[in-house]
Amino acid sequence: MRPDELRFSVAPMLDWTDRHCRMLHRGLSRRARLYTEMVTTGAIIHGDRARLLGFDSREQPVALQLGGSDPADLAACARIGAAEGYAEINLNCGCPSDRVQNGAFGACLMKSPAAVAEAVAAMKGAVRIPVTVKCRIGVDDQEPREALFAFAQAVIAAGADALIVHARKAWLQGLSPRENRDVPPLDYPLVRDLKRAHPATPVVLNGGLADLDRAKAEIEGLDGAMLGRAAYQSPELLLRVDPDWFGEPAPAADAFEAVEAYVPYMEAQLAAGVRLADMTRHMLGLFAGRPGARLWRRHLATEAVKRGAGLDVLHAALAHVKRPTETDRDAA
């Protein structure tokens, strides 16, 4: 597959992929597609849209993930998202939390392909930007091949522009949301079979992809990969996305340069009243594996939360981390 046809994205993750996280990640990769946390249709329709949907144009390309099931509400929220400038609208059909089960959306929708197709058709009729669906391979006692293929057939026929498939079942009863990310077995071959059945529709693989090398190996025959916790917990790996996947230079030479590039954004946010910890919490894993990484994390975790904490805290934390020498770079 040509680099211009590949897709790489960082998964939407509740409480993690907020605007500060996405701005940090954008400084590590120009080509990664970034996603919001899931935002429910009710929150958008009745809540503080500026807080829920606001983002910096420098984050682009960024997609809005919606949680909901009512076609009219989803169409209205897709229209709002498009007007806000998002590059894609994504429908969450994979989250197994109690919250989404109580609202009858998320992974519950895997049981209702026709309803999801109606929602996708409504969103497609409301916006011109891509409408995509993120799903599992099935839920509970569903047979995965039968469930996934029926679901995909319905949403593709309704106009879905791409499918992002977390290659695990979701168990709505008996497993916690955390366990649902690890316990159900992965079935990457099934996702590849789905792509062979729908060659014209982009199919992106998600779930259990712990690093870029594993991701590249597993997407043979597919259109791309979506990494979640690996990208968040070790964000420095994103520096390899542009050169390794797209043949383009990374936006920063290393994580130190990425931090320096992030500082002006942090200054502006601090001036606007944002707490330092709201930004530094996304940086804790940035130097994972480097000498001094533990002291970096400890300093930020203890000092950034204090009232009035400023960039001096960041610089003091950074001083704990060993910078690579020219010898280190040559060896790498």
Gist?
The chain is an alpha/beta fold and 332 residues long. The protein is 44% helix and 12% strand. It has two domains: 3-246, Aldolase class I (TIM Barrel); 255-331, Four Helix Bundle (Hemerythrin (Met), subunit A) (Up-down Bundle), CATH 1.20.120.1460.
Counted up, domains total 2
The fraction of residues assigned to DSSP E strands is 5-15%
Strand order of the largest sheet: 1-2-4-5-6-7-8-9
CATH superfamily of the largest domain: Aldolase class I
Count of distinct strands: 9
Q: Based on Cα principal axes, name the global outline.
A: globular
Report the total helices: 17
The parts where pLDDT drops under 50 for at least 5 residues are: none
Based on CA atoms alone, the radius of gyration comes out at 20 Å
Going by helix content, strand content and strand pairing, the class is alpha/beta
- Straight-line distance between termini: 27 Å
Oligomer: single chain
